[in-house]
Amino acid sequence: MTPFPDRAVAEALALATDLFSRLAAATADPPGITRASFGEGEGEAHRILAEAGRRLGMEVTTDAIGTLRMVLPGRDRALPAVAMGSHLDSVPHGGNFDGAAGVVIGLAIAAALREAGRTPQRDLLVLGIRAEEMCWFPAHYLGSRALFGLLPRDAPDTLRRVDTGRTLAEHMAEQGLDPTPIREGRGLLDPARIAYFIEPHIEQGPVLVEEGLPVAVVSGIRGSLRYPLARAHGVHAHAGAVPRRHRRDAAMATVALIAALDERWSRLEASGADLVCTTGILATDPAHHTSTKIPGVLRFSLDIRSLDASLLAELDAWLRAEAARLGAARGVTFDFGPPTHAAPAPMDPGLRTLLMLSASQAGVPVREMASGAGHDAATFAGLGIPTVMLFLRNEHGSHNPDEALEMADVGAGLAVLVPAVSELLG
């Protein structure tokens, strides 16, 4: 890979630093920032980065559903582009870097190319994608799936934002956007026009901080098996008067099921399986619960993720069998409710090798790791587009105001990505 002048990478880092500062100031919502999907904060982030793209001499457009497209033209416009980017929405009172880092770094790479006086063979397309965070609308990868015509056609009129109760179509119209392509099932970007997709993103866990590494190449995005609306049904009864053999305790039965899942997870992990399991909701009904009552109903959620689709299917079957066994033993029935599934998305081996080689040549310490969180990159990979992600070290996790991406680690990411992207651009 051809090295870049130090001044070009320095120019890229200076632009990234400035853009992060502008985004934080414009979308501040103490504590943290808020950029609601198809809301004012997300719109303001799009405006700031669109203006930055124009200053770089890029072709800047926004499509009907709100995707920001910024193109650094190549010499042969007929060739499919190298695409980079991520989402620009956030959770309420979140951090400044989740999602935004991918778009900012894409622009920073365009700045490095311009500073070095290099015109690529093919276009560099930087995408600002709408609505990735599920906390606003209950649909995974909403913006990237809409971009390729993959959303259900009724989504504009059936999806409602959780904080307002208003439909996706209403929020889009408020931002001057048009849901018609979604209703028609019409994609606005042809996958054949994208040669590669690269999504830089902060790591959302503690691994890179723990290991003292600035970056990681993502091996794949874990698929998920989720039951967000599960319930256990037993019988309410007096806490002191009912002996164990007569109890139909929904809470105890659910705890036993979760303990069995935890034990199975431990064994599978010890054997080398990639797996994480979470119970994020565990609640008795506040209209009925009291410290002197055996709970007859308990609401809970299960979130099981792995890079191995067959393992997810195996666990789903095991979970149902174990629930039936425990339910029969304890006089309780389990209703898991409607599931949501996302398939695992392995990253492209050739692109992973390219980023690892680039890191080695730049002297940047690196490792490979799976992504436990979902990302828009999964949509691109699912369409057969060669896709890769680069994680940047970030303290304090994400989805909170304390995200702490150091600009030195952005610099390390640029040292890896600038020559690698330049190689792909030709």
UniProtKB/TrEMBL annotation:
Alphabetical keyword list: Hydrolase, Manganese, Metal-binding, Zinc
UniProt cross-references to Gene3D superfamilies, sorted A to Z: 3.30.70.360, Zn peptidases
Cofactor note: Binds 2 Zn(2+) ions per subunit.
Binding positions (Zn(2+) 2): D98, E133, H399
Cofactors that this protein relies on: Mn(2+); Zn(2+)
Binding site for Zn(2+) 1: H87, D98, H201
UniProt cross-references to Pfam families, sorted A to Z: Peptidase_M20
GO molecular function: hydrolase activity, acting on carbon-nitrogen (but not peptide) bonds, in linear amidines; metal ion binding
Domain of life from the UniProt record: Bacteria
Family named by the database record: Belongs to the peptidase M20 family.
Subunit structure: Homodimer.
Annotated protein name in UniProt: Zn-dependent hydrolase
Organism of origin: Neoroseomonas lacus
Lineage: Bacteria, Pseudomonadati, Pseudomonadota, Alphaproteobacteria, Acetobacterales
